[in-house]
Amino acid sequence: MRFGVYLPTFAGPHLGFDQAALVKDFARKAEDLGFDALWVAEHFLEAPGLYGTVWMSPLLCLAHAASVTTRIRLATGLLILPYYHPVMLAREIQTLWHLSGGRFVLGVGPGWDQHEFETLGMTLAERGRRTDEMLAALRRLLTERDVSFAGRYYRFEHVTIEPLLPRVPELWVGGGSKIQTSLSPDKPYIAPAVLARIAGADGWLARAAGNQQMVKDDVRTIRDYLAGHGRDPDTLRYGHLNFLHLVDTTDREEALRLQRPVFERVMGTHRTFETLQQSYFLGTTQEIVARIRDLEASGVQDLVLAVCDYDLDQLERFASEIAGRFRREQSP
To answer: Which one, of 136, 159, 156, lies nearest residue 146 by Cα?
Structure first.
């Protein structure tokens, strides 16, 4: 299993220069600790009930991280494609590819927040079709000259983004089952259109807002879909993102008491704490490790660990108490 970490790009109301500067410190430390990748989130408006924070610009933050690292991969997890125009996004991807020495990983999703879509003059019902058009346009813009495109939402003629990339960046698609709530339109299963999108990608990133069984069921669903459509299921990477905050106790109730205010600061309080426990890595470190082992046994190969704050101590604990434990067990 490979371990990546979420770059903490939280943009709360009290964000200051000192806190923003920690993005660089976190990126350096993550690379020094041997993590495989840095991932960044995208949501520019708060969505009460699903999370209680917003995040800084994902591509700008990855460029920032690229300037202080040399090895660690830099991934969007996830970039919400309908929020962009393909021509401008192709230029930004091409720029970040070169600034990072080819370390950029393009993780994408269709989004789900109706308020964000309406703010940008779109409807939520367009999200899937816009995402697929964006992917089709980006594949050509990044690797071809004199591109013309005539889609339902995006149209342009004779566009060349120089210099062309040698290939489309490694592509990850997000999606999957989610615990159903009136606050989100997403369902507790993978939609057929999402399965088709995953089938054209290099990796899949399971969302954090499902539960343990949903992630395992989704792995099986995707593998069956790929096999049924002529693709070897082993040619896809299977990943999962989840938030955690490690604490110094072996007592579950005490661990939850310490973790609750930390999680509610990021997730908000509209969902019950019991619901949060179904989705996120809460409880003792031993319990969290057991959940990760269970996911690994089901076929998850990449785990993205997300801190709930700008906390370098937590990052070091992720390396020693989570990733380090798996590395020790897997070493000959």
So the answer is: 159
